[in-house]
Write a structure and sequence with these properties.
The chain has 100 residues and is of the alpha/beta class. The protein contains 4 helices and 3 strands. It is globular and about 35 Å long.
Length: 100
Amino acid sequence: MSKAASHTFASLTCGIDRAAKNDIPTTIVVFGASGDLAKKKTFPALFHLFEQNLLPKRTRVIGYARTHMSVEEFHKRATSHFNAQADKGVVEKFLQVCEY
């Protein structure tokens, strides 16, 4: 990892950690939210952080893409690669903070 990328990652990590500890409203925008990377990696990773209570309490996740789809379609796509054993109640709570 380059020095600049390492610094950016460290800043991001500290920022999210500080936001979680201090209950700072946080918005995460996922560009390309209808794509393969978002479906297979980004949303499962965000869900894992949410599941472990590592995101700030007042977090919103906004998915953005050129693809037109309903919120229900977005939710189905975003959760399609979640662990099959994921708690359905926690998944529903996660989806409540996700918009498209």
